[in-house]
Amino acid sequence: MTKVFVPGDAAAVSVGADEVAAAFEAAGASVVRNGSRGMLWLEPLVEVESDRGRIGFANVEVADVLDLVSSRSHSDLLNHPGCVGVVDEHPWLTSQRRVSFARVGVVDPASIADYEAHGGWAGLRRALSLSPAEVVQEVTDSGLRGRGGAGFPAGIKWKTVLETASELKFVACNFDEGDSGTFADRMVVEGDPFTLIEGMTIAAHAVGATEGYVYVRSEYPHAVAALRRAIDAAYTHGYLGADVLGSGHSFDLHVRVGAGAYICGEESSMLDSLEGKRGEVRAKPPIPAISGLWGKPTAVNNVLTLCAVPMILADGGAAYAALGTGRSRGTQVFQLAGNIKQGGIVELPFGVSLRELVDHYGGGTLTGRPARAAQVGGPLGAYVPASGFDVPMDYEAMAEAGAMLGHGGIVLFDETVDMARMARFAMEFCSIESCGKCTPCRVGSTRGVETIDRIIAGQDVQANLVLLDDLCDTMTKGSLCAMGGLTPMPVQSAIKHFPEDFEREVAPG
Hints:
Blueprint: E1 3-5, H1 10-13, H2 17-26, E2 30-32, E3 46-50, E4 53-57, H3 65-70, H4 74-78, E5 83-86, H5 91-94, H6 112-117, H7 122-128, H8 132-142, H9 154-163, E6 170-175, H10 184-191, H11 193-207, E7 211-217, H12 221-236, E8 252-258, H13 267-274, E9 298-302, H14 303-315, H15 317-321, E10 324-325, E11 328-329, E12 331-338, E13 344-349, H16 354-361, E14 371-376, E15 383-385, H17 395-400, E16 409-414, H18 419-433, H19 439-456, H20 461-478, H21 482-486, H22 488-497
Helix pairs in contact: 7-11, 7-14, 8-9, 8-11, 10-11, 10-12, 11-14, 18-19, 18-22, 19-20, 20-22
């Protein structure tokens, strides 16, 4: 019986993967719904098992299925017009350094046995053989920093929770991936959910937590289903529950679905939402590591941070720290989107240039026009001009360039983009998504939209640019959280690098 792998990832499903899988099943093939390899421009990317490895076929449609199933030899398969060769040998993949995404697209996300066969649970087993303080030290030695955008050292956060006395502690995973152009959290959970479960269980042992929550946005139904299915399997096989792998450590894990508020990507807003309240930013101190969920010490990390942990414990913190550059250790999962020819997931050590990601991995713009800018780090990230694409992608280099790495999202724009309208989009986004708790964000963003509208209309442009700069300064310094504090970054970067788009004149009437 022919064994084929058809991604169940939401991106593949959106271009017909479910129908293709059903057609393979009807043709008598054995179908595994794996995760996406991250080459989104090739989806649905179907892989057919062979003695040479899994041979891939790009953009498969239902009409192609019978031809693939009836192929009698490897040469027939390799000569198929849609064939991309043995997927594991594809140069786009082999040139990456996949750590957090090592199993995504490879394993059956519904099979706990397949997960273990590909190295799963090795990190947890080693962690349980160490004391909590030793686990925290491994994470500290790895140099792992929060992949949600802030880049705060995970080891320091975990040490704070461990050393804070409390009869009850929590681990909370922020899976409210709301940045435009980001999808790595979704893809890793849909394609390898056990890695997140393992990472959270290791974190729980390290900080002394007995209960964990995954807060996921409602727009991710496929991820929610995959995660809940994997959690049930983990309970059945003893990786979760009252006695994790016979260690005596108890850890229960729950999934909570949010209503899609962008502000709940901020950790304290997420905690409020988990408690059943309206998601609003909390004033700090106290920090969540000391007083978090229901006032208890809480280790809050995002999906990619926790998905790096199993490999760190399995291979040792030093091995992870050997990757990267400067204070940015390990790998970053970059997400290529926007006007790009080859969108998808690229995992590489920190330090790769933005140009290499855009031109080599992304293949340049989809339209074939010259690139003009890339927004890095989500809707609150700076617009980097094409002349600045040689910047290394690490926390410090990006900050020095007046930008931020954020969650690793990269949205590319060609020469036709109007940067004044993109600046307006940033302000409008903030005005819509603000929790409303502080005036600089709530009111400032609304006034920002109005001011940019006057600039676009050519009304008293220079005076309004001065007013906009003053407004941005107020938002940066006065906002309670990064929602209002970072909204000026895309606005001011657009003005700095593309002033010609703001120097408008009133069209003759």
